[in-house]
Amino acid sequence: MGLKEYKKKRNFIVTAEPAGGKPLPKRLEGASRFVIQKHAATRLHYDFRLQMEG
């Protein structure tokens, strides 16, 4: 499922899920990105995720 289709199915007013922002400027397209996610599972830990090839 693509992002456009996913956003059509979600009601971001009702859920606490972030809707996302504007697309990246052309100069940043293809740039590597990372995310650090706080994960409160059985034990609290942080996930460090790297974007590779899109």
Q: Could you give a quick summary of the protein structure above?
A:
It is built from 1 helix and 2 strands, in the order αββ. It has one helix spanning about 5-10; strands at about 35-40, 45-50. β1 (about 35-40) and β2 form a beta hairpin.
Per-chain topology:
Layout: H1 3-9, E1 34-40, E2 44-50
Antiparallel strand pairs: 1-2
Order of helices and strands: HEE
- Please tell me how large the radius of gyration is: 15 Å
Outline, from the CA principal axes? flat
Largest sheet: 2 strands, antiparallel
Strand ordering within the main sheet: 1-2
Tell me the β content: 25-35%
Given as residue ranges, the uncertain stretches (5+ residues, pLDDT < 50) are none
Tally of individual helices:
1
Determine the mean pLDDT: 81
Give me the count of strands: 2
Q: By helix and strand content, what is the structural category?
A: alpha+beta
User: What is the terminal-to-terminal distance?
Assistant: 16 Å
Helix content: 10-25%
Give a description of the structure.
With 54 residues, the protein is of the alpha+beta class. The chain is built from 1 helix and 2 strands. Strands 1-2 form a two-stranded antiparallel ribbon. The longest helix is centred in the first third of the chain and has 7 residues, at 3-9. It is flat.
List keywords for this structure.
54 residues, alpha+beta, two-stranded antiparallel sheet, 1 helix, 26% strand
